[in-house]
Amino acid sequence: xxxxxxxxxxxxxxxxxxxxxxxxxxxxxxxxxxxxxxxxxxxxxxxxxxxxxxxxxxxxxxxxxxxxxxxxxxxxxxxxxxxxxxxxxxxxxxxxxxxxxxxxxxxxxxxxxxxxxxxxxxxxxxxxxxxxxxxxxxxxxxxxxxxxxxxxxxxxxxxxxxxxxxxxxxxxxxxxxxxxxxxxxxxxxxxxxxxxxxxxxxxxxxxxxxxxxxxxxxxxxxxxxxxxxxxxxxxxxxxxxxxxxxxxxxx
Amino acid sequence: xxxxxxxxxxxxxxxxxxxxxxxxxxxxxxxxxxxxxxxxxxxxxxxxxxxxxxxxxxxxxxxxxxxxxxxxxxxxxxxxxxxxxxxxxxxxxxxxxxxxxxxxxxxxxxxxxxxxxxxxxxxxxxxxxxxxxxxxxxxxxxxxxxxxxxxxxxxxxxxxxxxxxxxxxxxxxxxxxxxxxx
Lengths: 251, 182
Hints:
The complex is a heterodimer. Chain A contains 12 helices and no strands.
């Protein structure tokens, strides 16, 4: 088995077999359950259009996925260092690329598990409405690069600082800023600064795509610019992670 | 008494003449009508389409024309303008130019997000004039429907966490058995 697959298997097992990983999955399903129950128990919210609810839930899934990637990415190098396993790992015949790829595949598995857990919830709230299939497709297409990008970014900070806490704090702060379109209304985002942030924010790009395809039923051709934005985001984060992973902080 | 009646008649006539004169000066005609295929009793989630026609009836071209659609909720006690963000991706036509005698026909698709009584209107202005022209309004009612089915949400909301808890218990039991075997 290739080295990166071995690392990926180990990382994935932490998510799927360990109580710690399953606890996260349970917390995530609890979040989606609460969200769904809130929707049906509140008269005003229960009258929301299906597409609107699927859009809101897709944004929540994306935010939770990016949060998990930030946590796993923060642990990737600094966690190994704090546990005293980084030096033995780097002394082993494992290339920087294999280590990075293995950890990224682990994150991808975690995201896949979250996606699988989210699917029945999206079905329950969106099956009688429109564009449920499109919602799932675009959540995978746009969510994966956004989530992986945050994971790579966390790995970058993790390798640079050698501190899980510093990496978590900085990455989650950035994630909160990026995910702010989930909280602020379209009116505020309509300002010049809001539009400028939307133009460079991959999270906003993904959310705007969800809005566009789920609610407005717009075609794939209308999503090219935003797809480019999230792909560039992923590429830049990958490059940064590669550079930092080549010279991790041992101090 | 007759004198007062005459004065009133003159005043009404003056007001009507002024209105007619103002209408005559309007350099464009703006019309709005619903699409023939619109559902007669729309429900939340339905699509409606409206068509506006702007005709330049003046002698000069209209430059920098801006036309936009507005929606107002008129439910008693809940009268308010509606933010069209989720209702329509096509909210305005900007920068168009209309030569004299030329018309611009635009469709305004709209997805019905919330139940209630609404009025829709298209407004038009241009770069040169200081006036906003409005079309006739169209009123419609959107019937509410419960879009989320509690019967479907509850089993999933309770079932998925229970399934994961079951997986955790199974996992823990298997780990204990392995340890016991070792």
